[in-house]
Amino acid sequence: MSSQDIPEENLPAEQDHAHGAVGIADEENPFADPGLPPHEHRIQDIDERAAKRSERNVALLFTVSMLATIGFIVAYLAIPHDKQIFVFPIGHINALNFALGLTLGVALFCIGAGAVHWARTLMSDVEVADDRHPIEASPEVREKVHADFRQGAKESALGRRKLIRNTMFGALALVPLSGVMLLGGLGPAPGTKLRHTMWAKGKRLVNMNTNQPLRPEDVAVGSLTFAKPDGLEEHSEEFQTEIAKAALMIVRLQPGNIKDKRELEWSHEGIVAYSKICTHVGCPISLYEQQTHHVLCPCHQSTFDLSDGARVIFGPAGHALPQLRIGVDSEGYLQALGDFEEPVGPAFWERG
User: What percent of the chain has pLDDT over 70?
Assistant: First the structure.
């Protein structure tokens, strides 16, 4: 059905949207205003039944968006994070990621599609041409903007078409919940995990290179050795998580060169054990200078004095390296006498 088939008395009244006189292009004025073509009414403008159908379609899209958002929340809570499914032609993918992406995509798409369908079928589609005007907002311009806004609000029929209004508000209210749920994907709170490592009383010090327990005679004066806790294997699932906290560097000094009293008490025959994790941003410390007993972090040059409690003598690190108290067991192997007394790694004090 077209507007030509409808009696004139049933057609909506045309609004005055004149924008100046129509001109004819000639040599002197090659860019004359051609004017606007005659406005053709849509079927929704002249048939209330068609308008109701469009209204129901828009409401359906908004309702589907609400259901998809609820599906997003249910999927986030119900689907195990390690579950795999086969989706043709993609193949095997993570079920949780697929469900979250699908439901969130449908929710956002339906809101956008509903808004576009609403604008194209129910809101006014009369073309309006406006003359150029100065950039500054004069009182007349402000009044015109307010009038245009009121006119647009009236033409949107938001107050009259309650079904669209209510479903749109419901969809817009539920979609942000998807973002709230995603906050849970940041992972569980660390709790006290940062305060503890695998080191405990009786844990032997194992050489990272040879994977063998260390004896005091294995550590020469002036040498730097890296160690891990006995029982931590490289092929285990938790290796990277645990070694990031438990990595240890062992240096043997002459007992007379150790200036810090507690460091001397926690050592064994001049062998001291400190965390390998820099207290600046967590880089592994690997450079040792024998004459000065300084260790250097290669990332930002934080320097620690291992003969004086591993205090910071240069660089951006905020505090000394934590020391591990060590001794020997009944078989003569180096062992830990407990865990670090303070958390290892960077910025812990700022995190509380």
Answer: 89
Burial category of 124 from C-beta neighbours within 10 Å (exposed 0-12, middle 13-18, buried 19 and up): middle
> What is the C-alpha to C-alpha distance for residues 139 and 50, in angstroms, rounded to an integer?
41
Give the N- to C-terminal CA distance of the chain in Å, as an integer.
71
User: HEC string of 219-264?
Assistant: CCECCEEEEEECCCCCCCCCHHHHHHHHCEEEEECCHHHCCCHHHH
How far is residue 169's CA from residue 157's CA, in Å, rounded to a whole number? 15
Which residue, 268, 273, 279, 272, is CA-closest to 329?
268
Tens of pLDDT, residues 113-167: 999 999 999 988 887 777 776 677 788 888 998 998 888 888 887 778 888 889 9
Provide DSSP, 99-149.
Answer: HHHHHHHHHHHHHHHHHHHHHHHTS-----------SS--HHHHHHHHHHH
Number of other residues whose CB lies within 10 A of the CB of residue 218: 18
Q: Cis peptide leading into 284, omega within 30 of 0?
A: no
Q: Which helix (H) or strand (E) holds 91?
A: strand 91-94
157: left (phi over 0), alpha (psi -120 to 50) or beta: left
R_g of the chain, CA atoms, integer Å: 37
Q: How many CB atoms lie within 10 A of CB 8?
A: 6
This prediction has a pTM of 0.51
Alpha carbon separation from 149 to 129, 130, 152, 156 (Å, rounded) = 16, 15, 5, 10
Q: Is 196 in contact with 339 (CB distance < 8 Å)?
A: yes
